[in-house]
Amino acid sequence: MDILLQQLFNGLTIGSVYSLVALGLTLVYGILHIPNFAHGALYMLGGYVTLMTMAAFGFPYFLAMFVSILIVGFVALLMERLVFHPLRHSPPIHDKIAAIGVLLFLETFVQLVWGAEYRAMSTPFGEVVSFLGITVTVQRILIVVAAVVVMVLLQLFLKKTLIGAAIVAMSQNREGAFLVGINANKVAMLTFFISGALAAIAASIASPINLVFPGMGHLVILKAFVIIIIGGMGSIPGAIIGGYILGFSESLGATFISSDYSDLIAFALLVIILTIQPKGLFAKKGAA
Amino acid sequence: MLKDNILPLIFLLLALLIPLVTDNQYYLYILTISFVWTIGVYGMNLISGYTGQLSLAHAGFFAIGAYSVGLLTVKVGMSYWLAFMLALVITTIIGLLVGLIALRTKEHFFAIYTLCVGYIIYLIIYQWDEFTGGVRGLIGIPAPGAIGPIQFENSQALYYLVLVFLVGTVIFMKWITESLVGRTYIAIRNSEELAQTIGINTMRQKLVSFVTSTFFAALAGVLYASVVRFIGPNISYTMVTFDMLTYALVGGFGTLFGPVVGTLLIVLLTQSLQFMEEYRMIVFGPLLVLLVIFYPRGIVGGYAAWKRKRKIKKMNKSTTDSHNKSTYEGGP
Question: Does B104 contact A274 at a Cβ distance shorter than 8 Å?
Fold first, then answer.
C-alpha cells in the first residue's frame, strides 16, 4: 500500500512537469498549427539559465527562475519572429525541418557554452517530510503546487483578460479573429513567449530532482508530443489531463513492470493510440 | 541524352579514378563512409523529398540493418553474404510493418509517430543488453566475404564495392523517380487529396515508397557495419536522422542528385574541419533554418531551376530572333 501511495505521488510530480511542458507545446500548436520540435530545447535552456544564474550571480532560487522565464520566453519569441513567421506560407514539412534546426542549434550552443557534463541543481527545499505513510522532499511538493498555481494563472489569464481572450479567439477561428481586428503577429509572439515561459518553469522546478544536461529535453519533448496526442492537439485541458495520465502510468509501470523500460511506456501508448486513431484522440472534426 | 548526363558521368569517372591516384587510407575510408551515408540519404529522399512524408525514423532502420548483419555474423556465425541478404529482408519487413501503421497517420502525426518509432528502436538497442551488447556495442563484424576471386579485405576493394552499390542506388532512383510511379509520389507530395481524387491509391503508393526507403536505409546500415566493423547504439539515435535530413536538404530535397552532392559536401567538410565533429550542429542548425526559409531547393534543385530559366530565356530569344528575321524578310 505504501509503495502504491509513494508511486502515485511520484506520478503526480512527474505528471505536473509533463503537463507544463505539454501546455506550452499545445498552445503553440492550437494557435499556429506548428508542431514545435524545438520545444524540448526551450525546456533544456530553462534548466540551464536557472542553474547558471544561481551559480554565477548567487541569485536565490525563485529569482533565478524568474530570470529564466524572461530569457527563455524571449528566445521563444525570437524563434517565432526569425523562423516560424517567415515560414507561415510554406509547406508544412518546412516548419518541422526548421524546428529541428533550431533544436540542434540551441543544444550545441548550450554544450559549447556550459559543457556536456551532467550537473545537479541545488534547491532550498531539500528537506524531507513524511505524511500518510510516505516520505517526500519538499521540492516534490513544490513541483505539484507550482504546477497547479501556474495552470490556474494561465487559465485566469486566458479567460479573464482581453489579451487572453484574443489568444483563445485566434485558436478557435483565425479568420474571425482577423475580422474583429486581432493582431495576429502580437498573438503569435505572445503565444510563443508563454510557451517558452512554461517550459522554463517546468525545467526549473524539475531540475533539482533530475539533472541538467544538454540532451535533457529529448525525452521530455517526445513525451509532451505523446501527451498532446492523447489529450487532443491544441487542447489545454487535454494537455493537463494527458500529462497526469502519462505521469501516473510511467511511475506505476516502473514499479510493477520494469524500470529499465519505463520510458518505453509513453511511446507504446502513442503507438497504440495512433494505431487505433490515426488522427489522435479527440481530433477536431473538420479542423484544417 | 549524353549531354544531359555529362556532369554525373564526370563525377563517376572521378570517383573511379580516386583510388588509383591516392593510396591515402584515411581519405579512402572517409569517401567510402560518405558513399554509405549517401545511400541512406537516398532512402530518406524518396519518402520525404519525393513523397512528402517527413520520416524521422530513418536512423532506426539504418541501425536495424547494421545490427542485423552484425548479430547474424558475429553471434550466429552466418556467412557474410547470406547475412547481408537476410539483414535487408529483416529490415524491409520491419519497415513494412511500421509503414502499415505509421502511414495511416498524416503530416504532423506521421513525423511525430516516426520520431517516436526511431526513439523506441534506440531504446531497445540501448537497453537490451544481452542481445545487442547494449551501450558497449558490437565488435568484430567481418568485412564482406570474397565474391569469387575478388577479396574485400583492403580499403580499395571496399571502396569500389560501396561505389557499386551507390551507383546501383542512383540508377534505381533515376528509374523510379522518372517513371509513372515517381510522378505519383510527387503528386502525393503536392496534394494528397488531389492525388486521391484522380484515382491514385495513395496509401499503397506511400507504403511502397516507405518500404523502398527503409530498404535503402538498411543497405546503408549493412554497408556501414561492414566498413566500420563496429557498431554502437548511437547510430540509431535521432541525431543521425537529423544529420541525414541536413545532407538531403543541402543537396536538394526531392532531386535525383541532391543526396550525393549534399552528403559528400557536408561529410567531407566536417571531416576536414576537425572541431566541427562535435559542434557541427551549431552550423547545421541555422543552416537548416536558413535553407528552408530562403533556399528550400538546395544546391541541385537551385542549379536545375537556374538551368531551366536560362533555357527558356534562350528559347525566347531565338524565337524572337527568328520572328524578327522573318518579318524583315517577308515585310514590305
Answer: yes
Query: In this complex, which of B117, B238, B279 lies closest to A112 when CB atoms are compared?
Result: B279
| pLDDT tens-digit map of B270-327 | 777 766 667 777 877 888 888 888 888 888 888 888 888 888 888 887 776 655 554 4
Contact A246, A270 (CB under 8 A): no
Q: Is the pLDDT of residue B41 over 80?
A: yes
- Cα separation, A143 vs A14, in Å, equals 9
Residues of B in contact with A261 (CB under 8 A): 123, 127
d(CA A277, nearest CA chain B) in Å: 8
Distance CA B48, CA B44 (A): 6
Q: Is A156 on the interface with B (CB under 8 A)?
A: no
Say if B193 is an interface residue toward chain A (CB within 8 Å): no
Cell readout for B266 is: 557536408
- Indicate the SS3 state at residue B86: helix
Q: CB neighbours of B11 closer than 8 A, spacing ≥ 6?
A: B260
Residue from A229, A259, A274 whose CB has the most chain B CBs within 10 Å, to mutate: A274
Say which amino acid occupies A253: G
Within chain A, strands assigned E span 128-131, 134-137
Tell which of A93, A112, A114 to mutate to test the B interface (max B CBs under 10 Å).
A93
CA angle A103, A107, A113 (to 5 degrees): 145
DSSP structure class, residue B150:
B
The arithmetic mean of pLDDT across residues A71-86, rounded, is: 91
Residue A288 has pLDDT above 50, yes or no: no
Element housing A241 (H / E): helix A236-256
Q: Tell me, what's the pLDDT at B304?
A: 83
Q: Under DSSP, is residue A28 helix (H, G, I), strand (E, B) or coil?
A: helix
- The pLDDT assigned to B90 comes to 93
Nearest CA-CA partner of B185 in B55, B52, B51, B53? B51
Integer Cα distance of A133 and A120 in angstroms = 28
Partners of A130 in beta bridges = A135
**SS3 of residue A134 by DSSP:** strand
What is the pLDDT confidence band of residue B256, given thresholds at 50, 70 and 90?
confident
Q: Is A274 on the interface with B (CB under 8 A)?
A: yes
What are the angstrom distances between the C-alpha of A118 and each of A51, A61, A107, B279? Answer: 12, 19, 14, 18
- Highest-pLDDT range among A38-42, A281-285, B226-230, B256-260: A38-42
Q: Is the predicted pLDDT of residue B213 greater than 90, yes or no?
A: yes
Compute the mean pLDDT over every residue in chain B, rounded to the nearest whole number.
Answer: 84
The reported pLDDT for the residue numbered B188 is 85
Percent of chain B with pLDDT over 90: 18
| Angle, CA of B90, B94 and B100, to the nearest 5° | 145
The owner of cell 508530443 is A225
Q: Is B230 on the interface with A (CB under 8 A)?
A: no
Quote the pLDDT of residue A75.
Answer: 94
